Amino acid sequence: MKFTIKKMAAIVLYMLFLGFLLKTEAILLFSPKHIGMFLAGCLILCIPYLEKKTRWKEQKGIFKRNAITAGYLETIMLIFATMMQKEITWNTLPAELALDLRPIFYGFVCYIILKEEPPTFQESDPFKIEDQRRAIADETPEKEENKPELDISVLTRQEKQIAALVKKGMTNREIGEELCISEATVKKHMSNIFEKLKIQSRRDLR
Predict the structure, then answer these.
(1) Which of 33, 60, 79, 100 is most exposed, with the fewest beta carbons within 10 Å of its own?
(2) In this structure, are residues 175 and 144 in contact, taking their beta carbons and an 8 Å threshold?
(3) Closest of 59, 10, 66, 77 to residue 39, by C-alpha
(4) Pairwise pLDDT comparison (72 vs 65), residue with the higher score
(5) How far is CA 6 from CA 36, 37, 56, 185, 206, in A?
(6) Residue 74: exposure state from Cβ atoms within 10 A (0-12, 13-18, ≥19)
(7) In this predicted model, what pLDDT tens digit does every residue of 136-182 receive, in sequence order?
(8) Left (φ > 0), alpha (ψ -120 to 50) or beta: where does 141 sit?
(9) Tell me, what's the pLDDT at 76?
């Protein structure tokens, strides 16, 4: 949470700095009314994806994806409302349209803030580096001759989706972000896939 707040503060500070250098009123980007409309839109778009047992990590991924959509939808509506105003003149139209683009900015800011950073390893710790190399090696497909075909008809719809993403070389974390589920849920599905297909590792899926 602290890291997320720091990222948000850094982005706001950077935008104000750019506004100062470009001699524009960057403070106009942060309209409480439009930010409130944007957040309300994000929450409304997230409703169809939420379940009672949805974890915080999954909810964050859902919100991150819908932030971009909410930004575009609100921007389109604002542009439409601006064009419908009778008192708008050709001289004031460019400035109004520029302000109407604010929700898109909010969407990308939310996406950047909620985007998870990959784990980093210090070069001075050889054990962590070796663990990372082994993890990468485990994800690397190996060529096998006369590999028997797997009967994926025994899998559920979501298990088939996960198996297809494993074939593309995606990790459990990447699969979770793609399907908006937690990494623990992906691991549970992987265990079911191994048991149903009678395989030992994800290499056998490729």
Answers:
(1) 33
(2) no
(3) 66
(4) 72
(5) 21, 24, 20, 29, 41
(6) buried
(7) 555 555 444 555 677 778 888 888 888 888 888 888 888 888 888 88
(8) beta
(9) 92
Single out the residue of 107, 108, 98, 206 nearest to residue 152, CA to CA.
206
The token pair at 160 is 């088939």
Enter the tokens of residue 8: 């948000």
* Integer CA distances (angstroms), 15 to 25, 32, 117, 199, 203, in order: 10, 16, 21, 52, 46
- 7-47 tens-digit pLDDT: 778 877 887 788 778 777 777 777 888 889 998 988 888 88
**Token digits for 136?**
């990468």
Give the chain's largest Cα–Cα span. 74
